[in-house]
Design a protein that fits this description.
Molybdenum Cofactor Biosythetic Enzyme, Chain A; Molybdopterin biosynthesis moea protein, domain 2; Molybdopterin biosynthesis moeA protein, domain 3; six-stranded mixed sheet; 20% helix
């Protein structure tokens, strides 16, 4: 499908709705160990195989007692045993108590724990200084997790706390979506690999290493296609090679309309574009489509534009390809600590960091240099502040803010 140069800019929310439903869902699962499961996407429900805890145990250091024995004045019980975590005590008889420690199984005959601060020990006698109710200071069987309970649904992306959850029920492996394979190509005769001495007119290819790192956070297998020359035939050949190797192609540069921008034309020659030009700043010259049936994303060449379009558009689409249930980044409300003139027709994403105003209140501060070539601002920012189209900002206004922590994991 050929797109004319005068096509209207697509708002980002509309673009995401189109893309998340049109990207192909990859198939194939694999069993991985818990150590290798973080960041992967479950392909089956995670069901608890055991109760957690598996036995009633003490929530505090103290004395295990039967509340029926807490009568008289003073209340004194005979301490007959000492139970630590990992040990199973003997049953208690009437008038007896057990010294018990956090996590230790509750002995038969006890129904509560008196914390040690509310006890006074004299030889083998413990005086109970404060009454307790049945069940107090205990963790009951299955209080956290019930055997057979659905803990996580298929499509859930696993985080460290989820790995701990799976381990707590005795699981050692999880069934997850196979990894995405992503081919990355960068275009531009001016690009050279870091480590090579620069000649006049050359710049280092930072985009590949940035994109490769972003993809590896998503556990993708990255195929480096190298730097593609600025000519149509080389670009077409690189795209066709990528389509034969990967689930997805990500390119940078060459998607605008300059005489040396060949990516758009090459994609249309060996496949088709479904989306071109976003109503965002930075990142307008973004393209999406298919190359021989393989998903293609064409990012702008400027480093900030490439970064912004990847985290805002490509990342949620890749998660959708993995069958992930949650792909949108969370947004938060924050006070603006800067003024900004009226924005144009494109929604702006300002690199901003969290600072303090004169009263110690949190506010967003923007960097003076918002150029799409100022890659250093990405390292110094905490996230992206959003300025809607045709909107001016005054200090104290409320803006939506997306922390990088929501966009990079």
């Amino acid at each position: 499908m050929k797109l004319s140069h005068d096509i209207p800019l697509t708002p980002i929310d509309e673009a995401l709705e189109i893309l998340r439903t049109s990207v192909p869902r990859i198939t194939g699962s694999e069993l991985v160990t818990l150590a290798d499961a973080c960041g992967r996407v479950l392909t089956e429900k995670l069901v608890a195989s055991a109760n957690v805890p598996s036995h009633a145990n003490s929530a505090m250091d103290g004395y295990a007692v039967c509340t029926k024995d807490l009568v008289g004045e003073p209340i004194k019980l005979k301490v007959v045993q000492r139970i630590v975590a990992g040990q199973v005590g003997k049953p208690l008889s009437e008038g007896e108590a057990a010294r018990i420690f956090t996590g230790a199984p509750l002995p038969e005959g006890a129904n509560a724990v008196v914390i040690q601060e509310n006890c006074s020990l004299d030889g083998n006698q413990v005086e109970i200084l404060k009454m307790v109710e049945p069940g107090e200071n205990l963790r009951k069987v299955g209080e956290d997790i019930q055997a057979g309970e659905i803990l996580l649904e298929a499509g859930h992306r696993l985080w460290p706390q989820d790995i701990g959850l799976a381990a707590s029920t005795g699981l050692t492996q999880l069934l997850v979506q196979r990894k995405l394979t992503v081919a990355v190509m960068t275009t531009g005769d001016e690009l050279v690999r870091p480590g090579v001495e620069l000649k006049d007119g050359q710049i280092y290819n930072s985009n590949y290493f940035m994109l490769s790192a972003l993809l590896r956070i998503l556990n993708a297998e990255v195929i480096e296609l190298g730097i593609v020359e600025d000519d149509l035939v080389s670009t077409m050949q690189a795209l066709e090679e990528a389509a034969s190797l990967a689930d997805c192609i990500v390119s940078t540069g060459g998607v605008s309309v300059g005489e040396e921008d060949h990516v758009k034309t090459a994609v249309e020659a060996v496949g088709g574009l479904e989306l071109w030009k976003l109503a965002i700043k930075p990142g307008k010259p973004f393209a999406s489509g298919k190359v021989r049936g393989t998903q293609f994303f064409g990012l702008p060449g400027n480093p900030v534009s490439a970064f912004v379009t990847f985290v805002l558009v490509v990342r949620p689409c890749l998660l959708a390809m993995l069958g992930c249930n949650l792909t949108a980044a969370a947004r938060f409300q924050a006070r603006a600590g800067f003024d900004s003139g009226k924005s144009g027709e494109r929604q702006q994403y300002i690199r901003a960091y969290l600072g303090k105003d004169g009263k110690g209140r949190s506010e967003l501060k923007s960097y003076d240099n918002q150029s799409s070539g100022a890659g250093s601002s990405l390292s110094r920012a905490d996230g992206l502040a959003i300025i809607p189209p045709h909107t001016s900002v005054a200090r104290g206004d409320t803006l939506e803010f997306i922390p990088f922590s929501e966009l990079l994991m």
